[in-house]
Write a structure and sequence with these properties.
The chain is mainly α. Helix content is 47%, strand content 0%. It has helices spanning 28-43, 68-81, 94-103, 109-122, 126-130, 134-141, 147-165, 173-176, 184-194, 205-213, 222-232, 238-251. α3 (94-103) packs antiparallel against α9 (184-194) and α6 (134-141) crosses α7 (147-165). The chain is elongated, with a radius of gyration of 33 Å.
């Protein structure tokens, strides 16, 4: 018989008869009760915490990009960042704003604002524009790009305003859309920024980019994006919301290398093309 070293006492079996770390089998009554509870839970569509999900079923999450609480939080943060922003195009009348918006296509507001003061000094009324030939206007707006098409649009719009609307820019969507060079974006700018009428949401390149990054829409088409935004943004916020996204796009949310580290929306934005992120990335949100 081998002797144990002094001071070491061998462990003895537990009085209960169970060995260490070995689970005791449940009594038949408890086993039956567990089976009954499990069956009752399955009948209600419940699953025990340790049960495995059936094969082929995808794990679901509670995240919804269009949840009212998330939309409200986005609007709240935009209000804190840009509480009272307005249209950046320089203008003193509805006609000047209409012209400036037509010229801003494929150009920057800064560039348009360099051109329009002298343009409106040279042609101070809508009638003065209507008396021009497009070729006469081209040298004055050349630096805004696409000056041939823009000159036709501005002169054509001036003639239509004088002939059909008594020299006054119409203040409803249907009439504005009859003017040459005017689509919904331009009409929404004039109606919202000058007449304070919320007939839609301005959708330019900034609004398109940011609304897609924030997963407020999946559409690439501006008209469909506008319809998506009109469904989820309260009507009283349509005008300001568009201005806020435009300013956000100029200040932080650039097309390339956005300043995500400085963005107040960062932790609720899952955009796939973020430059930096503290949250899960959604590759299709961009």
């Amino acid at each position: 018989m081998a002797l144990m070293p002094r001071g070491i006492t061998p462990r003895r079996p537990a009085r209960t008869g169970r060995q260490d770390r070995v689970a005791r089998a449940p009594s038949p009554a408890k086993a039956a009760e567990r089976r009954k509870n499990a069956a009752h839970g399955e009948s209600r569509g419940l699953r025990s915490p340790t049960a495995k999900a059936p094969k082929g079923r995808k794990k679901t999450t509670a995240y919804s990009p269009l949840a009212p609480a998330r939309i409200a939080e986005i609007l709240k943060r935009l209000d804190q960042l840009y509480p009272d922003v307005t249209c950046a195009l320089t203008h003193t009348s509805a006609w000047e704003l209409l012209v400036a918006t037509i010229l801003s296509a494929q150009s920057t507001d800064v560039n348009v604002n360099r051109v329009t003061p002298e343009l409106f000094r040279k042609y101070p009324t809508v009638e003065a524009f209507a008396a021009l030939e497009p070729e006469q206007l081209q040298p004055d707006i050349r630096s805004t790009g696409f000056f041939r098409n823009k000159s036709k649009s501005v002169v054509g719009a001036a003639r239509k305003v004088v002939a059909d609307f008594g020299g006054q820019v119409p203040l409803n969507m249907n009439d504005l859309l009859t003017l040459p060079g005017v689509a919904r974006k331009t009409a929404n700018v004039v109606l919202g920024s000058w007449f304070k009428l919320a007939e839609g949401v301005v959708v330019d390149t900034h609004v398109t980019r940011i609304s897609r990054r924030l997963e407020l829409t999946k559409n690439p088409n501006p008209q469909k994006i506008e319809q998506d935004l009109m469904r989820i943004i309260p009507r009283e916020k349509w005008i300001l919301f568009a201005h806020q996204l435009i300013w956000h796009g100029r200040k932080l949310c650039y097309a390339r290398k956005p300043k995500c580290v400085d963005c107040a929306l960062e932790n609720i934005c899952h955009a796939g093309d973020k430059a930096w992120s503290t949250v899960e990335i959604h590759k299709n949100a961009k």
